[in-house]
Write a structure and sequence with these properties.
disordered N terminus, binds pyridoxal-5'-phosphate, Aspartate Aminotransferase, domain 2, Aspartate Aminotransferase, domain 1, seven-stranded mixed beta sheet, 2 domains, 39% helix, alpha/beta
Length: 412
Amino acid sequence: MSTNPDPDTASAIADQAIGGLANGLETVAIPGPSIVPERIRAAMNRPMPDIYAGDLVDASDTVFAGLPGLVRSPEAQPFVVIGNGHAAWQMAICNTLSRGDTVLACESGRFAVAWGEQAAVSGVKSETLPGRDDGPVDPAALQARLADDRDHEIKAVLVVQTDTATSVRNDIPAIRAAIDAAGHPALLMVDCIASLGCEPYEMTGWGVDVTVAASQKGIMVPPGVAFVWAGPKALEAYHRADLRVGYLDWGPRIDPEVHYYLYAGTPPVPHLYGLREALAMIAEEGLEARWHRHTRLAGAVWAAVGAWSTDGGIRLNIAEPAHRSTAVTTVLTGDIDSEELRRRCQTGAGVTLGSAIGGLGNHFRIGHMGHLNPPMLLGTLGTIEAALVSMGAPLGGSGVGAAAAHLGADFA
Ligand SMILES: *Cc1c(COP(=O)(O)O)cnc(C)c1O
């Protein structure tokens, strides 16, 4: 460490020590990992048990019994992978595809394209269906591309429900309809990593073949486990797939004699207890009530951003309300320095906002997924407003007032 501290740094530290307001609960408002409720942290914090019998096996059974309901698919086979969302992507690809197959990644931001890039490293060809960074995948463009693929070289269509970079929500039933209208047999694989537990989702009802998700966003559990649900067509494709990887192989994980093999080895003990608690919390609230809560809270964010908006200043990246995610919002800040805004929220109030991703210019992201209620969200929005005011940013009006009015409509 330097013995001659930079005078700016020294004075910033002194300011914080004397006048800082950030003591108190820290607020992480990034789009995952999201806030982990105390109930889940407490459930995870326990001594290591017997992993072959007793309560841990009960917890594992409860988790597996609860997973199909999360995606509304009694028939889907759930898999738990110890890893993050990228591990679930890999599991989906390597159990259903073969070397030389083509996947079509539908662009609507960053994440489906990244899934396709990861698949390409494993030996499939990845093609991107070009899309926008301010709107959803165009079902007509997908239908046209699939209709052109007369030899059915495309074996899987990869799409995200919510893209966490752009905060767009894709219309999964419309994508299914486009595949059907083209008469194409490709598997439909949907990344719900950001949206599961937040956005309405019907794996069976919407004809999805593979769903992937992870623990650390709408499911409220720390990062470290991810999920894949395989529908009947995907399980059939498994028998032809030659990309299979020992650790991720579905075969030994389906109906194993010893529950140890559900995880291809030692289970993720704290996560299983955390997931059991999370599933209990989700059941107590009700999945549909949860979807409704996310819609209402997201509406408050949109109301706030709408009130702040000015020409050349702040606005929502996704203009059309029907295309907006209810789990994350990408806010464009025009000429306002979004990194400085994030810094002020962090040092001034202990609020961490999601950083900019990719080529959208000045922007930040607000995660509003999982364990969240009006005081938590209003605190974040109020902090953003305070930081904007402190920067002399042009504002159309009070976002906090607009958000409060929106939420107040639900108070009886
Ligand atoms: C977070 C996220 C990912 C990546 O998940 P990791 O756990 O970081 O691997 C992929 N897709 C979407 C839509 C996400 O939000």
